[in-house]
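Slide 14.
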Amino acid sequence: MRRFLVIVLAFLLALLLGFLVYMTQTADFGRQVRVNEQLANLRRLDAKWNESILRARTGALADEEMQRVSRDQLGRAINGLSQEARALEDLVLVANVARLQTVYDEKLMLMAEYGRATEVSAKALSSVLSSVPSAQAQIRDLRAADPGALRERLEEVRMLLDRLSATSMEFSAVSGERLAQEIEQAEFKLLAAVDVLPGAIRDTLRQTVTTLRALREAQPRRDQAFARLYYFPTAPRTDALGTSFAQTFQGALEQRELYRVYLVFYSAALLVLLAYVGAQLFRSYRVINIVNLQLKRANETLEQKVELRTRELSDALKHLKESEAMLVQSEKMSSLGQMVAGVAHEINTPLAYVKSSLESVQAQLPQLSALAVQTERLLEMLQSGNATEDEVTSQFTQVSNMVREMREQEAVPTLERLTQDGVYGIGQISDLVLNLKDFSRLDRTKVTQFDLRAGMESTLKIARNLVKTRNVVKRFGEIPLVSCSPSQINQVFLNLVTNAAQATKEGSGTIIITTRRVGDREVAIDVEDDGHGIPPEVLPKIFDPFFTTKDVGKGTGLGLSIAYKIVEEHGGKITVESKTGQGTRFTVTLPIQSAMARAA
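Slide 15: predicted structure.
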């Protein structure tokens, strides 16, 4: 019962420690970066809108395509902020994001209203600028036709129209009360001139007055829309939302700091407790040592047992030195074991048509045997001289018929072809078995000059059943022979090719294998795939022993760790580059004269 209580207490202490450690984990700065990025996108979008609004005072508002892109950008930014707020489980932030979206939607509506007002103002100005030249042309014609009393009056109207063109353009760009009054006074003067001028120009002047009045009435509406739009509070609302997010992140950070303080005090208490337990254990060990000393004196055979135990430990040490090499070999055989079905299929295919060829040859043997028997009988008749001419003729005819029948059936060429097929199939099986033998042998100390390209070809043959549904691209550059342990290097290649095949899709996956020279003393082998890639949080642990991202039973977690150690023992290095969703590239760099060769 006491032991059970101790176990329960230890479990609770460990559980509390785990809880404190979990609560002190580093804050998710990635979420904070994403929130700041989305807020920055909103600020840039708002600034772009304000710039477009200012440009619209002298031109047209942004076109429909730019407005559509702006709406898309706004939707992405708001959706991103909404997702982050929901992930933080903060209802206030969710509501603030919704209100901010409403503010931006209202600004879009005001922009549409401002665009319509700008369009009306622009059309009014265009009408003024088109009617004034027409009136001026008619005035020139009247002056030429009637140089009398109306000449001075026509000149006044012409000068008034000249001033109206410039005043209208200035009023359209920078509206003001002074310019509006000038245009209104010009309208009165033109209407007064209509009564004294000939009828041909009256309609034109009335049209000019109408366009001036339309411009004077449209411009204030545009200015009002501009004022409401330009000073709309999107920027303060965006800054306020950013402040809310910052406060939330700061609160989470302060909470973690508080739990760190708790963890420090709790760890100190645990250390005190452990020190007490250690003291008790030390006291117990002292008692045990006293008892052992008494037993040693009482036991005359204890020294013999110690000597025996020492020998056992020495043997265990020797076995331990062998364990590392055996572990490498075990992982190698494990890799081969995972491909047994594929290798069996690769052997079974040529074996099947070797068997078929031999069965076909066996089917032809009775006919050949019968021909040999009948031919031998004909020779005996000819040699003995006892057979009659009819018997010899009959026997010769029978042999000739059998020979003709075999010639028609092309028996001999068929046998040659079947024999060649069988020899070819046996050659394929022999090649595969030889590759398996070279790969599986335990050659820890054998260092030789090795062609890495041939080693990769051998590895691809072993893994053919695994990579045959992938597109394997070989870019073998010229590289020199490398001093290394071929079996161990092949093990590295097999592990990288297997991982690349398992990371890609069947039928559409691509594996690119490249060999190249690096400087004067090294060569490099790249194994690249277009698979799902390795997550950034997993990448630093990819070479750790017993670390694997595969399902239970599909990986030991030792493949890349052993590959890393093999390459390191050869004086090389292995690196990995990966992007999630784009693929992974492993690069093995080996010295031409390896460390193992120099040690040998």
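Speaker note: Residues 234-298 form the longest helix (65 residues).
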